[in-house]
Design a protein that fits this description.
With about 425 residues, the protein is α/β, with parallel strands linked by helices. Among the domains are: about 180 residues, 3-Layer(aba) Sandwich (Rossmann fold), CATH 3.40.50; about 90 residues, SH3 type barrels, CATH 2.30.30. The protein is about 25% helix and about 25% strand. Strands 5, 6, 12, 13, 14, 15, 16, 17 and 18 form a nine-stranded antiparallel β-sheet that branches. A five-stranded parallel β-sheet has the order 3-2-1-4-7, with helices on both faces. Helix 2 packs parallel to helix 3, helix 2 crosses helix 7 and helix 4 packs antiparallel against helix 5.
């Protein structure tokens, strides 16, 4: 871009106000810097999401340091700064959700909910009260636009850095939220972001990436859950690989998706319900709600030869079902189901109608390689059949489907 074009570009942005979610990390710091360089009117805002000492999340207090760093970055960049307390909303929408999901034996993803419910809802509304045109974050993803039937459609695209792509965490955003979102560093590599931060002498340049819950920090999940979900001893049952029930969970050779009736789809895609008499008790646990499908660590059972994996949990009966080895059929599923109420399309124009099917690449967890799958829309919901069986498919997780680098939609696994 030549100097004249750059000046025209900055003029276009001059009257556009952006509130940047300054987290106290390097990514959001550079996002704010880049937006200011592009000519936007930038305001930095720090989200204080947790300070309830009655429910301890971490022995450390990362938000205080992060808030200070965010303020120092804003001061360095010469932009206004304020902190906003969203702790009550965070408790209601994220923490209470986590407790209820684990109590029900499901595996939540609070980071996806934090983006949908906090950053691009509560935070967005707070920004709009400041007359902001956009909100911006330090996510490694990109936004595109196209026109469909004369209407502008926004696209959520993967970040340019494949090791940092965070489009999965944003898979529940809708068109309205995307229209107000900016992702200034999505086209950069992480190394480039740190280089810019060092060149601008930002205090966050060498700061380690945050880990754990969205805007909170590192969490020891068992300790966290035990504050509301009390320990309760129950059996760990190991299930043999030869159960007849597994036969209905395999995709038959030479299958045709068009021939699959609801019964066949249900057999392939719904989770297996075990009973204690289908296996052998090998140890005790301290609460089925502390465990999730696919988990290997924390069982504290030795002498099994092959590694032991959780293949199902029953929080009502307080039983953990396990299988030996990564190839155990209870650990590997060829399909999953998303009820109608939990289906979300970023690209509403590509929404499947009842009776339609489509081929997309998909993932069920962050950084998992994309794998091809067939999506089949039925009256009761969406069935997703994988070309290759997936390990550790847990109820409550989010499945996201992509076309190339574009995130098309997502859903909560039944």
């Amino acid at each position: 871009m030549d100097l004249e074009s750059m000046n025209n570009f900055k003029t276009m942005k001059k009257n556009k106000r952006v509130v940047v979610g300054l987290s106290g990390g390097v990514d959001s710091s550079v996002a704010a810097y880049l937006l200011k360089e592009q000519g936007y009117e930038v305001i930095g805002m720090f989200m204080k999401n947790w300070h309830d000492e009655s429910v301890t999340i971490s022995n450390e207090c990362p938000w205080m340091e992060d808030s200070t760093d965010a303020m120092l970055v804003a001061e360095k960049l010469g932009i206004p700064f304020q902190a906003i307390d969203l702790s009550e909303e965070y408790r209601e929408r994220i923490v209470d959700y986590m407790f209820s999901e684990y109590k029900a034996g499901r595996t939540p993803n609070p980071d996806i909910l934090c983006n949908r419910e906090i950053k691009f809802d509560i935070f967005l509304k707070a920004a709009q009260k400041l007359k902001a045109d956009f909100v911006a974050t330090g996510h490694y993803c990109q936004k595109g636009e196209l026109e469909v039937n004369g209407k502008k459609v926004y696209r959520l695209l993967a970040g340019a850095d494949p090791n940092k792509d965070q489009s999965y965490f944003l898979c529940q955003l809708d068109q309205e939220q995307l229209s107000k979102a900016l992702f200034p560093i999505g086209h950069l590599q992480k190394s480039e972001v740190r280089k810019i931060a060092k060149e601008q002498d930002l205090i966050t340049a060498d700061k380690k990436d945050s880990q754990g819950l969205c805007f909170i920090g590192k969490v020891r999940l068992p300790d966290f859950l035990q504050q509301q979900l009390q320990p309760k001893k129950g059996p760990i049952v190991v299930v043999p690989e030869e159960l007849p029930i597994y036969d209905s969970k395999r995709i038959p050779a030479g299958f045709s998706f068009e021939d699959f009736d609801l019964e066949t789809l249900d057999n392939l895609c719904l989770p297996i319900k075990y009973t204690a008499d289908q296996g052998k008790k090998i140890a005790d646990h301290n609460g089925a709600h502390y465990f999730t499908v696919g988990q290997r660590k924390g069982l504290q059972v030795g002498g099994t030869g092959k590694p032991l994996f959780v293949i199902a949990t029953d929080t009502k009966e307080n039983v953990i079902y396990t299988g030996l080895g990564e190839d155990h059929p209870g650990l590997n599923r060829h399909g999953l189901f998303v009820p109608n109420k939990d289906i979300h399309w970023i690209r509403e124009d590509l929404r499947l109608q009842v009776g339609q099917s489509a081929r997309y690449q998909s993932r069920i967890r962050y950084r998992q390689p994309l794998t091809w799958a067939t999506l089949i829309m039925k009256e009761n919901g969406l069935y997703i059949l994988f070309d290759q069986a997936q390990k550790g498919v847990a109820s409550g997780q989010f499945v996201a489907w992509y076309e190339g680098e574009e995130s098309i939609g997502s859903g909560v696994i039944f």
